[in-house]
Amino acid sequence: MKKLLCTILILTVLSTLFLSGCGYQYADLDLRAEFDESLKGTELTVYNWGEYISDGAGGTIDVNKEFEKLTGIKVNYLTFESNETMYSQIKSGGISYDIIIPSDYMIERLIKEDMLQTIDLSKITNYDLIAKQYKNLFFDEKNEYSVPYNVGMVGMIYNTELVGKDIEHSWKVLWDEKYKNMALNFNNPRDAFMTAQMILGQDLNTLNKADWDAAADLLKQGKKNLQTYVMDEIYGKMETGEASVAPYYAGDYLTMLENNENLAFFYPDEGTNIFVDSICIPKNAKNYQAALQYINFLLEPDISTANAEYIGYASPNTAVIENKDYCYYQNEILYPDEADMPKVQYYHDIDADVRSYYENLWSEIKLY
After folding, report:
1. Measured between alpha carbons, how far is 101 from 104 in angstroms, rounded to an integer?
2. Distances (CA, A) of 137 to 107, 119, 122
3. Least confident interval from 9-13, 74-78, 343-347
4. Average per-residue pLDDT in the chain?
């Protein structure tokens, strides 16, 4: 219901911002930075997560169309489902991307492998809007290669109509036979392993292969309880009641809630993963200057707010965080009080040998 009220508020506010016209109606934006058409006619290729930008649906701001209108730069927009999928595409070099938005640990790996360009922050005049706590993080200590885009944590989504409201606040529900064939888990190794590692009390970045073996054994034990592994498919399954319990990202829960008010959410007592997704420019980008303009545009208060409200993730942008008209202002799931903050760990890039080890274990789990 909160998400529905948020959507109504968005539509009410945005109805006053749009200019008349056919098809998509461009927003009358209050821009903080200066943009020009010096790169008009060029193209910018953006590679981002699915459902991860305000796209004009339901009367929201279409961020890419606004950027095209403002600069004359054509945006080619492509999406991925996981950091690992994105990495393999970048590594293959088959397509040149100008903008990518990976998570923290993947940025750490891309920097180590010399796959990112430094970002000229003198051209990102809106960078001062990034909150202090999201600067100088472990994966980019000097703020050279990335600009924070969204912040999130992983939790459990459940359908109260199917399982009731009295549910154990633990990752163990994925192994509970009460939810047999109605439980989902992540279809990517890092997040799937996390659900088992938290139960086992492990460091999510352990270099001890025996720890990964133990987590793999637990995942194998739980596989028979699962309906399937998912990424973006979770939307349809949880919104329609095809599945009843699933781990996923808090922001996506708020999106699903709009379509099924019976969904509820908790952060498991064992702890969870916290992540920062950030904007980067790959080494082989073809339109570096356009990429800088695009990053600056994404940090604009109106654009950052539109994205934060559309996506439902916590924002690292102070223009959003401090905006009392922001529909998720002080939302307890996205911005929990210190007393309600779950125990959290970041993923770090792990030594290649250990990474290959757990990826091979993941292949075994999928075939088990």
Report:
1. 10
2. 11, 16, 20
3. 9-13
4. 93
Handedness of CA 11, 78, 311, 160 (dihedral sign): positive
18-61 tens-digit pLDDT: 443 344 567 889 999 999 999 999 999 999 998 899 999 888 99
349 shares a domain with 213: yes
Q: What is the DSSP string of 6-34?
A: HHHHHHHHHTTTBPP-SSSPPB----SS-
Do 134 and 164 sit in the same domain of this protein? no
* 228, 352: one domain: yes
If asked whether residues 183 and 68 sit together in one domain, one would say no
Number of domains comprising the chain: 2
> Do 161 and 225 share a domain, yes or no?
yes
Per-residue pLDDT band for 93 (boundaries 50, 70, 90) equals confident
The model's pLDDT over 359-368, given as tens digits with 9 standing for 90+, comes to 999 999 999 9
Q: Write out the residue range of the structural domain in which residue 241 sits.
A: 152-274+340-367
pTM, 2 dp: 0.87
**Looking at the structure, do residues 363 and 227 belong to the same domain, yes or no?**
yes
286 with 98: CB under 8 angstroms? yes
83 in the same domain as 201 = no
User: In angstroms, how far is CA 151 from the centroid of its own chain?
Assistant: 7
CATH number at residue 104: 3.40.190.10
Given a contact cutoff of 8 angstroms between Cβ atoms, the answer to whether 20 and 51 are in contact is no
- Tens digit of pLDDT for each residue in 196-252? 999 999 999 999 999 999 999 999 999 999 999 999 899 999 999 999 999 999 999
Q: Is the dihedral of CA 256, 257, 260, 265 positive or negative?
A: positive
Q: How far is CA 86 from the centre of its chain?
A: 13
Give the tokens for residue 198. 């938290």
70's tokens? 């403002």
Residues 270 and 127 in one domain: no
